[in-house]
């Protein structure tokens, strides 16, 4: 790891230069952050779980034609990915009222929405990732109208697929955050899904009890973060491919 050139380090992942042009290596850290990194902790095994869960989801999305940056998992904590130009937007799709939506509108958490709602947030921790409109996005040239249309269509397709995938194993997809990037091929760029999809970036509730199985357990000091992430992996049927990450850490 030390010999590789570090391209970027975020709150939960590090990007290193890849073995071939146009590729990067994405490393999943155990760091947990909330409230724009005002709250921090290290949760042993979180990176391993998120790496495996994100691989599982991205592989299946590729299978239904939702193109993304994932190429293959390299080891417990690393993925080989396509290098993209990240569009500076966090795209949030909401199915049920939770988190900031409940606070902004004074709505009860857990209230189903009449339809899925997609929101855009400008990626800037110093500004607190402010909510923005399509007018802001085009005016400041963060993305053009065709790219916005592509992002909206892909996000709804991801939502449909993930809702069914999680629903089949007794998990309700409350909301999720995803990011997109431009994959350049000569002078032409197309928008593809990037970053990760994991309990770090999704709100996942047990369909029967509404028990939280996601990062809200860290945000709200509920405990049992790794156990909940492990439960998501178990229900998806991928724990058999993973080492033991609880009680003593990863071997």
Please render the helix and strand layout as text.
Blueprint: E1 6-9, E2 13-17, E3 23-28, E4 31-34, E5 39-42, H1 46-63, E6 70-73, E7 78-82, E8 85-86, E9 89-96, H2 99-105, E10 112-122, E11 131-132, H3 134-139, H4 145-167, E12 171-185, E13 188-194, E14 202-206, H5 216-219, H6 225-235
Helix pairs in contact: 1-6
Task: Report on the architecture of this protein.
With 251 residues, the protein is α+β, with helices and mostly antiparallel strands. It is built from six helices and 14 strands. It has helices spanning 46-63, 99-105, 134-139, 145-167, 216-219, 225-235, and strands at 6-9, 13-17, 23-28, 31-34, 39-42, 70-73, 78-82, 85-86, 89-96, 112-122, 131-132, 171-185, 188-194, 202-206. The model is unreliable at 245-251 (pLDDT under 50).
What is the percent of helical residues? 25-40%
By CATH, the superfamily of the largest domain comes out as ATP-grasp fold, B domain
Unreliable residue stretches? 245-251
Helix and strand sequence: EEEEEHEEEEHEEHHEEEHH
Strand portion: 25-35%
Average residue-wise pLDDT: 94
* Count of helical stretches: 6
Structural class: alpha+beta
CATH class of the largest domain: Alpha Beta
What is the CATH third-level topology name of the largest domain?
Answer: D-amino Acid Aminotransferase, Chain A, domain 1
The N- to C-terminal Cα distance equals: 18 Å
Major sheet characteristics: 7 strands, antiparallel
Number of strands: 14
């Amino acid at each position: 790891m030390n010999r590789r050139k570090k391209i970027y380090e975020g709150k939960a992942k590090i990007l290193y230069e890849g073995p071939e042009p146009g590729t990067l290596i994405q490393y999943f850290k155990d760091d947990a952050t909330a409230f724009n990194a005002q709250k921090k902790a290290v949760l042993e095994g979180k990176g391993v779980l998120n790496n495996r869960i994100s691989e599982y989801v991205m592989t299946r999305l590729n299978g239904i034609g939702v193109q993304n940056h994932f190429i293959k998992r390299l080891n417990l904590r690393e993925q080989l990915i396509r290098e993209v130009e990240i569009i500076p937007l966090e795209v949030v799709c909401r199915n049920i009222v939770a988190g900031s939506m409940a606070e902004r509108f004074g709505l009860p958490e857990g209230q189903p929405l009449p339809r899925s709602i997609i929101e855009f947030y400008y990626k800037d921790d110093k500004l607190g990732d402010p909510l923005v409109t399509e007018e802001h996005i085009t005016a400041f040239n963060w993305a053009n109208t065709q790219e916005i249309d592509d992002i909206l269509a892909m996000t709804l397709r991801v939502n449909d697929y993930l809702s069914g995938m999680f629903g089949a194993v007794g998990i309700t997809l409350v909301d999720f955050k995803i990011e997109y990037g431009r994959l350049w091929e000569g002078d032409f760029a197309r928008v593809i899904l990037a970053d990760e999809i994991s309990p770090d970036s999704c709100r996942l509730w047990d369909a029967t009890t509404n028990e939280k199985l996601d990062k809200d357990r860290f945000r709200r000091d509920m405990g049992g973060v790794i156990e909940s992430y492990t439960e998501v992996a178990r229900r998806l049927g991928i724990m058999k491919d993973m080492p033991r990450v609880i009680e003593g850490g990863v071997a």
